[in-house]
Amino acid sequence: MGKNLQRLTTDYKELLKRYSMEKNFIQKRNSTGVTTFPVIQDAWLFNKNIKIVDYPENEYRLPGIVANNFNELFKSFSSAKIYNSINVRVDDWYMSGDSTTFTIITGRTNYYKSLVTNRAIDYALAEGISVRELLECGPFIHSLKTSSLSNHLGFNGFVESADGKIALIFRKKGMSIGEETYSNSVTASLKIKYALNESYLFTKDGLMNAIIEEINDELGIPFKTLITKNNEPIQLIAAYRDVLEGGKPQLLFYAKTEMTSEQITYAFNSKNTKINCNEKPLAATESMITDGNFIYWIALEDLLKCDVFPNKFVHDGKDFTMLPSAAACIVMLQEFKNKR
Questions:
Q1: Does the residue 12 lie in any domain?
Q2: Structural domain for 32, as ranges
Q3: Has residue 4 been placed in a domain?
Q4: Which is nearest to 156 in space by CA: 193, 119, 184?
Q5: Higher pLDDT, 18 or 171
Q6: Which pLDDT band, with edges at 50, 70 and 90, does 294 fall under?
Q7: Is the peptide bond prior to 139 cis by the omega test (within 30 degrees of 0)?
Q8: What pLDDT digit, counting tens, does each position of 297-320 carry?
Q9: What is the pLDDT at residue 176?
């Protein structure tokens, strides 16, 4: 038999079996029964204080087995549009004893290191052995403090338009993950160009700014149109770990804008069709800057009632393919709104 060249498994039931000792998998009661997702919710973050303790000198090093097979693992992304950059790594995170403060301990890694660990964790190396088998074999996921993976910080989020709709994005072919599936309004790694202060430190303000800038980059929604609540334009909902990517740390957020769905669609399409504010074509060499091909709009009240599964959500009798992390975010949004 040939080697399995799949970077990430699609057998989500097997993932749940592998990590059978995990206790905080996200679950949802659908019309067909209770569904479990290979996503671990570590904390609810709304109405919590966020404390970031940053150690930029702490640089992640690849385990020897991964470093020795770097070229083979990296070649599995030959068809993806990727470039390297410094990323913020989550070295640990935890809720305080009184459950009022969520602390994030951070260092540094880079995107290529995450590709060959978190994002190629099921790619078969010599004799069919994968990074998952070597470094995250189960029956539980290592804590972030003891994890051997790159674990760069990412975030998913939902943006609600002025007319009460949620933007879902169909991702382009050539993405390093989730290509040609539906995702949340924004799905991104944290960009340090937006997140570090003048001393190159990662802060809470930097986190918020990175999310705000990504909303603008991906959807064309300027900061000035975001609606503030308790003086914050961004609501952090949850901290979770994506088991598909070996326990990669993610944050979930929610935001509202004064722009209508029609205005956002125009701004989004203008980016994708290389049209500037004067409606003149941009240079042919300028690359497209969004991850998505198009926006699928769904009324918030409808999204909150949808059946959701690890590989899809269902709306108007139609299946919309998703990765487990994106699908679990819908479940967390549903629970968040029900708690409010």
A1: no
A2: 18-339
A3: no
A4: 184
A5: 18
A6: confident
A7: yes
A8: 999 999 999 999 999 999 999 999
A9: 52
- Which H or E run includes 224? none
The model's pTM is 0.91
Report which secondary-structure segment, H or E, holds 45.
none
- Residue 278 is encoded by which pair of tokens? 């004067």
- Judge whether 233 lies within some domain: yes
DSSP states along 2-55: -----SS---HHHHHHHTTT---EEEEEETTEEEEEEEEEEEE-TT-EEEEEEE
Return the amino acid letter for 67: A
The pLDDT assigned to 55 comes to 98
DSSP 314-331: EETTEEEEB-HHHHHHHH
Number of structural domains, the chain?
1
307 forms beta bridges with 314
Query: What is the C-alpha separation between 136 and 149, in angstroms, rounded?
Result: 9
Whether residue 2 lies inside any domain: the answer is: no
Q: Are 196 and 102 in contact (CB under 8 A)?
A: no
Among residues 197, 198, 193, which one has the least CA distance to residue 210?
193
Q: Which two tokens stand for residue 95?
A: 């809720």
Could you give the angle at which helices 204-219 and 261-272 cross, rounded to 10 degrees? 80
Amino acid code (one letter) for 168: L
